[in-house]
Amino acid sequence: MMRLLASTVAAQCGLAIRITKTTSALSSCVQSPVASAVRSRSMCSSAPGAKERRLQVGASTVHFVEAGDGIRGVILLPGALGTAWTDFKPQIEGLPALLPHHRVIAWDPPGYGKSRPPDKQFTVDFYERDAAAAGELMQKLGFQRYSVVGWSDGGITGLVLAAKQPERVEKLVVWGSNSYISDTEANIYEGIRDVSKWSARMREPMEQVYGVEHFPKLWSAWVDGLLRIHHERKGDICSGSLKHIKAPTLVVHGAKDPMIIPDHVPYLLNNIKNTDLHVFPDGKHNIHLRYANEFNAIVAKFLLA
């Protein structure tokens, strides 16, 4: 099905489609085959040369990890309730060697992980607020222009940031992301609200970050936030803003991603001016963890081009 989708997108947009089959071993800290994005977040929380720092960004004290010492910047934006270490350890470890002229910044968004208290408030504009905070963080670190690499919710934040501050974002990479919420996805979110129905392997990584009692409350609040956008904004997260993105954009897609409907891939390609697509035919939602080495190489090549 994804081969058909890729061919259709290529015909519509004139893009060069690269379909990659990957079978290499996982990073030593990643749990074996990834049945779900959440389960795969159980990872080691250190990397040689990486530094943990905090900066005041607006009203929030933001925790982030910094790796590499280049003069160019790239920020990694995690998924829902995600943190620098839970979502991006293979990138924190691997990208600096591939991007020697970059500093890699991976943050805990305000209200997540070590960027608490307080917990995040999931208002209808929480992606916009995260995008503004990410931009301010990079400017405080001395980057007037920088690249953005965002997964899932972080990809949405990246889309918003690139649309709101096109002069700041040099290049953009997103995967597992959407610019609107369909009725089908609203039902998916409601269906995963009750974390007691999750397997222990899915729950435990987030319970380690937020606590056994608090994680269900914060996750339910996230679901409420997405449903609020679906109801109050008719599902429009940032669809109308995509036309303002000027940065060359790479959409990476796992063809077996269960978290987003396939329609989002051609939608992004058709509505962002300068896009390319890379497909992992057997990839799911967390291709950057399941195929860490290949993913890092693809991202590095795109950022250096």
TrEMBL record:
SUPFAM superfamilies (alphabetical): alpha/beta-Hydrolases
Residue ranges constituting the AB hydrolase-1 domain according to the UniProt record: 74-203
GO MF annotation, one: serine hydrolase activity
Pfam families with a match to the protein in the record: Abhydrolase_1
Residue ranges the record marks as coiled coil: none
PANTHER family given in the database record: VALACYCLOVIR HYDROLASE
Name of protein: AB hydrolase-1 domain-containing protein
Organism (species): Anopheles coluzzii
